[in-house]
Amino acid sequence: MAPLLHLFPSQMINTSHPSKSPPKKSSSYKHLPHIPGTNTNENEAVSFLRQYDVEASVMCNRFMEASWDFNTNVTDFNRRKMVRG
User: Would you list which residues are glycosylated (predicted)?
Assistant: First the structure.
């Protein structure tokens, strides 16, 4: 597993403590689910996002190259390479 993926919750909405009304959200974030958190350090958040961006870009690039190889040279080897990631 990628080093940062364990930091993401497996469920986006916490249903263990349902309430009568949903939590209030800022009007600019209505499309996002409420995910409680304890880290309010903006510098740590920025650092995390920069590291995640690098790792996600590498993973995306690997997949796109494997996909290109398969789509331009359809072989079992390239198919396995694309599926494996």
Answer: 73
